[in-house]
Amino acid sequence: MTPERGKDGSRLHSHFDTIERQVHAVRLGMWIFLGSEVLLFGGLFALYAAYRREYNAEFHLGLAHNHVLIGTANTVVLIVSSFTVAWAIHALRGGRTRASLLSLAATMALGATFLALKAVEYTSHFSEGIVPGPGYSFAELPGHGARLFFTLYFFATGLHALHMLGGLALMAVLSLRIRRGRTTPEYHAELEMGGLYWHLVDCIWIFLWPLFYLTG
Amino acid sequence: MSAPRHQNGGGRRYVVALVVLLVLTGLSFGLVSLGLGAAGPPIALTIAAIKVLVVGVVFMHLSEAMFATRMVGVATILFIALLCFGVLGDVAFR
Q: A155: which residues sit within 8 A by CB, 6+ positions away?
């Protein structure tokens, strides 16, 4: 259904009385989606807790083998990117379109940096024979617990990286919409929702960092 | 039209939140580097929870959200806690 465009550039769908109600509904729907995403990762966190209790010593050794500096650098990168995306929304609200676009460009650059560092880390793991599943051949930690640790590591961080890719695509589309005048200072609900998604990806990493890098 | 109630004057709080998050990250890294033993994981996870709270309240505007929206956040946290404690309980008392 094509929304009607008002004088202020806003777009009201026919089944809403006001723009405000429409935006409230969009926000609530987005939060429910984010809740489902958290539950998806929640299953992995629960699995991690159970396996860590069963194979505590091997999980410690696996953690000690991970690249803590890369993990920490990525944490800083994502935190700063959360700030830049929040700033992009703040700037657009204030009518500063150029500042908003620059902030979104910074967000995308930081997201790409995160993925590049992750690729460096994965490459290092692969070269040592640390791969998920039956191909695992890391002689230093041959035990079942270590295999489980690294399989969980790849699954959780890989799923997170896929979310990052989705977030990057979203930011690119939002930038394009701002450039074309479709997302405006008057109506920018889609940018807010994109920002919420990006922040969620950051929140998930905030927990993955101690679980897979710090607490060895 | 889509801006929440706090839309003016939010810039400074974003900067403060960024600084707080970076300090907490440094604190988490520093404390765990000291080798706190068994206390390390709970401390690191508590700091992570505080950081997520800061992101949720400041960057995601959860504090200004509607009651129903806040409830989605609360329910999600409760479900995750139930899931983790249920699984851990099963493993611990098996």
A: A44, A132
In this prediction, residues A155-178 reach a mean pLDDT of: 97
Yes or no, beta carbons of A54 and B91 under 8 Å apart? yes
Q: Are A157 and A118 in contact (CB under 8 A)?
A: yes
Contact B52, A203 (CB under 8 A): yes
Three-state SS at A30: helix
- Contact yes or no for B84 and A45 at CB 8 A: yes
* Backbone phi, psi, residue A139, to 5°: -65, -30
Cα B52 vs. chain centroid, distance in angstroms?
2
The neighbour count for residue A117, using CB atoms within 10 Å, is 17
All residues of chain B having their beta carbon less than 8 Å from the beta carbon of residue A11 are none
Backbone angles phi, psi at A184, to 5 degrees: -125, 170
Using an 8 Å Cβ cutoff, are A68 and B25 in contact?
Answer: no
Which amino acid is located at A91 in the chain?
Answer: A
Per the CB < 8 A criterion, the answer to whether A38 and A208 are in contact is: no
Flag whether pLDDT at A174 surpasses 60: yes
Interchain pair B10, A31: CB under 8 A: no
Tally Cβ neighbours within 10 Å of residue B23.
Answer: 10
Q: Is the pTM of this model over 0.95?
A: no
Alpha-carbon Rg of chain A, whole angstroms?
A: 21
